[in-house]
Amino acid sequence: MSLQILVTGANGFVGQAVSRALLRRGDRVTGAVRRPQTAAEGVREWLLDTEDFAGIDQRWPVALTCDAVIHLASRVHVMQETLTEPLAAYRATNVEGSLRVAAAARRAGVRRFVFVSSIKAMGEASSGRPIAETDQPAPSDAYGISKLEAERALFDYGRSTGLEVVVVRPPLVYGPGVRANFLQLMNAVAKGIPLPLGAVSALRSLVFVDNLADALVHCATDPRAAGETFHVTDGRDLTVPELARLLATQLHVPARLVPVPASLLHVAGRLTGRSAQIDRLIGELRVDSSHIRECLNWSAPHTVEHGLLETVAWYRSTH
């Protein structure tokens, strides 16, 4: 049966993949975007250029009735934060803004609200075993704190109103259109720059954007997902050297990896003021995604190799 789904942030990296996945199913997709003609082809755009979703109630189109909302729009993690009080800005968008969308959706008759959070709501690292949904959260930055607060506020709101809330926490997402650290790594590998990462042995979880999109479609449509929190990964963890070698293979270039001890990399991070970035490269962050497999019978439809092949094909066509 065809459903009507609202996707906030529909013009973003994940939003476009989610929209395409829904359209392939035959669903009707409305995308809330801030700029016209930026969503995927086939998406009906709703121009909603408001700060932190202020006034969304009054702006909700009379004709827009939908079965579920997939809420992707957020203030994302900023590597070089310039605000002196970033937590207030994150809370304004990620907590208060998300609650405004949820309240407007419920009043419009929406039954299911899928909130795309982040593994950063749990923390920056795992220690010896993958992070499960039932572990004690320990977010370490303003972004992660705001995502955790939003999860809790939305579940409280759902319990008090009957809105079915589902929370999804992805780790690093990659695929065509990826930015930030993953793109920097690809650039370095493609250019043959020697990387001091050959001795790094810590495993990290990733998720291909089309695997995440497929999981979000399940969370929006499967009755069993109501009230659940899910970690979503490709199901195969990699070390950074393994990832670099796979990218090099797909790019048809040699992987130039220099085995520098982790202790020296930590020192370099402190000296250059880039400790957080170094930690993300060499620290362990394994995520347990068995709950969504057991609860929804979901498994990643694409392998890591396929995801990297698609990512590299996009990279070669645009760089």
Automatic annotation (TrEMBL):
Q: What are the NAD-dependent epimerase/dehydratase domain coordinates in residue numbering?
A: 5-230
Q: Which InterPro entries match?
A: Epimerase_deHydtase, Lipid_A_modif_metabolic_enz, NAD(P)-bd_dom_sf
Per the UniProt record, which residue ranges are transmembrane? none
Q: What is its EC number?
A: 5.1.3.2
Q: Which GO terms describe its molecular function?
A: UDP-glucose 4-epimerase activity
Q: Which UniProt keywords apply?
A: Isomerase
State what protein this is by name. UDP-glucose 4-epimerase
